[in-house]
Amino acid sequence: MSPVFYILAVLTLGGALAAVLLKPLVHCALATTVAFAGLALLYLELDAQFAGFVQILVYIGAVAILLVFAILLTHGSEPPRKGAFNRTWIAGAVIAAAVFAVLGWAVVRSAAALPLQAAAPVVTVREIGFALMGRYVLPLEIAGLLFTVATIGAVIVAMHEKEGAK
Amino acid sequence: MNPLVAFLLVAAMLFAIGLAGALVRRNAILVLIGIELMLNAANLNLIAFWRYGPHPEALTGMLFAIFSIAVAAAEAAVGLGLVIAIHRHTGTTNLDQMNGMKG
Known about the structure:
The structure holds two protein chains of two kinds.
Chain A: H1 3-21, H2 25-45, H3 49-73, H4 89-109, H5 125-133, H6 137-158
Helix pairs in contact in A: 1-2, 2-3
Chain B: H1 3-24, H2 28-52, H3 60-90
Helix pairs in contact in B: 1-2, 2-3
């Protein structure tokens, strides 16, 4: 493994850990952005350039901004009164550690059977475009429909309600 | 070491961190951040298998990940809209106080 991989893994996992553990919500949002950026760089390390740039555009460009706006609109920047973690946090941490133990055990045990394609695949954006417009055109249209529904739904859910409509 | 194993272990770790975030935090926005981290871990798995598996020229793993990113973005928009609506109704984003359906 190249040293670049280790640096990116530490960056991604450190950002994710900080997002989960930090107290101020704005710091959590910023740490999440670091984790998203590390993931985008990991995609580039995996020779998936298009996915890496999509990750930057969608997650850092849109989802991180949405998170910051949601924190702003819910007054989340004020410090929490009763602590950041809920009453059953020990059980949650144990469950997460157990899930990681099972996943890691499965990956390490099946290491010999995993495929290993040494040659880096060369994929141009042109090929991805032809695939999206050809073989994957139906999922693309369904994704477009989903976006329409999700946008309208998010606006209607978050819209001001009339007086007495409760 | 097979590089695929290293990527899968990073993805498993990221999934566990996201799961811990969704389970232990009080704030609804942090729970959504945990869910996003879990979705990203799954995407990393898909792209790692696409890179090291046979027939990468078929583009299946990468396009699966791209559609997954699209669906996750729609989910984030609806989820944060719900959090804002709940905050307007109850004045809180603390999940411990959202017990309106408790029997």
